[in-house]
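User: Could you go from structure to sequence for me? I need the amino acid at each position, not a summary. Structure tokens:
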């Protein structure tokens, strides 16, 4: 997959951890304990254990870089090449991570962009994503919504009920050809596009993005109760320390 980068990275992972955890009611979820380890540990450990991944870039909140480096040191995470500061918008954090990625890998390399807030993505999911890149510019994990989705107006009035069979909920990691996504993000930053999904940036340029089967356990820690649920998932997986 991909070309050899200047420093040999063919697959680089960018872990986004620079958010402000506003929906967590005052708790910084990135370093919140899960199974006795900081939440960010799980996504870093995933890439550490993925044979396909050569290098990891972490995007930390400005001022939290040393906390991230301490996690890397404490758990012996040797693939971390750089910890860079993120921005106010996720878009700016992703762009900072991609800019660092381009200094360790060439445009033909693959990049995986992942939320540090998702502790349960699997190695087989990473493999599926990288395989899908063979004939696509981007690949995203997707699952079918369990609930019906409606469009509303004025925060209240139902204006449409969407056909569920063509809807998907999209997760991270998302895999891309590095050159294509880095270039797309440069424009997104310059023009201040609102971005909630990395693949959407590439879609704006007509890039071919495909879905692979996502994972129900690969949910994002967003609200305080998600951490309690994550403890149950971790216990079921038997992966606690
Ligand atoms: N993120 C980031 N930089 C930002 C915003 C978000 O790196 N400016 C990261 C978060 O740290 C998280 C991932 O993007 O790992 C997904 O974002 P989200 O779940 O929305 O996290 P937060 O933005 O921190 O949470 P909230 O929206 O509730 O403030
Ligand atoms: Mg957010």
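Assistant: Here is the amino acid at each position, in order:
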């Amino acid at each position: 997959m991909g070309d050899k980068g200047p420093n040999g990275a063919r697959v680089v992972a960018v872990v986004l951890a620079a958010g402000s955890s506003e929906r967590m009611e005052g708790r910084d979820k990135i370093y919140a304990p899960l199974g006795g380890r900081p939440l960010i540990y799980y996504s870093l450990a995933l890439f550490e254990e993925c044979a396909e991944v050569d290098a990891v870039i972490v995007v930390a909140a400005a001022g939290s870089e040393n906390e991230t480096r301490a996690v890397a040191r404490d758990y012996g995470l040797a693939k971390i090449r750089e910890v860079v500061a993120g921005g106010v918008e996720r878009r700016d954090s992703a762009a900072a991570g991609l800019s660092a990625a381009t200094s360790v890998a060439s445009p033909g390399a693959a990049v995986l962009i992942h939320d540090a807030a998702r502790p349960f993505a699997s190695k087989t999911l990473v493999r599926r994503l990288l395989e899908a890149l063979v004939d696509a510019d981007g690949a995203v994990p997707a699952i079918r919504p369990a609930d019906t989705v409606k469009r509303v107006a004025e925060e209240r009035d139902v204006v449409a009920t969407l056909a569920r069979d063509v809807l998907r909920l999209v997760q991270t990691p998302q895999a891309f050809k590095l050159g294509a996504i880095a270039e797309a993000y440069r424009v997104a930053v310059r023009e201040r596009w609102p971005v909630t999904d990395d693949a959407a940036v590439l879609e704006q340029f007509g890039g071919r993005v495909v879905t692979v089967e996502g994972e129900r356990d690969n949910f994002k820690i967003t609200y305080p109760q998600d951490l309690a649920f994550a403890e149950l998932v971790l216990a079921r997986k038997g992966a606690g320390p």
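One structural detail worth keeping in mind: The domain at 9-232 is CATH 3.90.550.10 (Spore Coat Polysaccharide Biosynthesis Protein SpsA; Chain A).
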